[in-house]
Design brief:
Blueprint lengths: L11 H14 L7 H20 L4
Helix pairs in contact: 1-2
Length: 56
Amino acid sequence: MNTALIRPIKTETDYQEALERAGALMSSEPNTPEADELEVLATLIELYEDKYFPLA
């Protein structure tokens, strides 16, 4: 089991850390814990961006 702590993105620092982690996971094989972590991080990043960087 992956012991990485996934938490809400509340600050710019959290956002930057999530982007870095997602980048590190981009080459993950499908159907692995790393791919699952990437999927969850992508969702959290999208929610943060929608809130703080909305497209007009």
